[in-house]
Write a structure and sequence with these properties.
alpha+beta, Jelly Rolls, 303 residues, globular, single chain, 3 domains
Length: 303
Amino acid sequence: MNYCPEEKLFVGCAVEFPFHCDIQEVGEEGFIYRSHWHSHLEILYVFQGTLLMMMEGERFCASEGELIFINAHKVHSVAVKRGSSARYLVIRCIPDIMYNAGVMESRYQSDFIAECPFFDSHFDNERIRRTYIPDIMQQLCFEYRRKAYGYKLVIRSDMLRLFLWFLRERRTNKALDFSATSKKSLNRRYTEQFESMLEYVRQHYNEPISPNMAAAMCNMSYSHFCRVFKQLVGKTFSEHIHCLRITEAEKRLLTSNQSITQIAYLCGFSHPSYFSKQFKAYRGVSPQRLRRLLLSDEGPQQE
C-alpha cells in the first residue's frame, strides 16, 4: 500500500497551555499508526494491553504500566496486534511554547533543554511502578476526562512533576562525569554562547561545520570548547552533528522518494558510503534496511 506520511499536527493547544492529553482505546480489531514524526514531544502510558512500537529502527513492546517517551523529530510507529485490545494515555507538549510561556523555571528549563535529547525512550514497569508516575498518569486521565474547573492547572502541575522525574532519572542513570555543582556553574556561564551556536548548527547542519568554527562562535579555544561541549551536551561536537544529520536523513527516508545518495549529500555527508556507515553505527541498521522497515505494510511485529 502506498502512503505519504506527514508531520502530525498538534491539536488542542493554546499559547498559554502547551499540553494536550488524549485517551486511546483500541478494540480487538487492532490498529497501526504507521511511521511518522512530529515537532512536539509525546509521552505514552499504557493502562491496558500491549503496544508494538518501532522507534529509530528498533522494535519493542510496551505493556501495562509502562511509559514511552518520544522526542520531537523521532520517526516512530505504534500498533496493537489484531485480536488484542489496548487503552493508553497520549500526552503531547510543544517545547518552544512551554519554554516561552514560562511554564518551567529557567534554571530547570536549561537543564531540560540540555538533557531532553538523552532521555530513555522506554521505561518498563519495574522501573516506574514504585514511583509516583502511575498516580500522575491516573490523575491526568481523570482530569482530562472530567475537565472540571481548574483542570488545566492540575495538568500543568502534573506535567512539571513528570518532567522533573525524567530529569532525575537522567541524572541518576546517565550522570555526566562531573558534579552537579560544576555543571550548574558551566550552564550559567556558557548557556547564552552555546544556545546561539547550537541554533546556528541546527539551521546549517548540512553545511561543513568544524569544531574549530563552533569554538570561534563561542569565543573559546578549540580544546576548551571541546571539553565544555562534552560536559554540557553529553557528546562530542562531531557526534552532535552526526545525530542531527542522521535524524534529518531518517525523515527523508520516510517522507521522500530521494535516493540514498541524494539524501547523503543533502544531509551534509561527504560520501554515500560514509553516510551508510554512520547511519548503521547510530541506528543499528543500514539506510536501505530502515527504509524498508519504515515503509513496510507489515508495520512493527511482536518478536
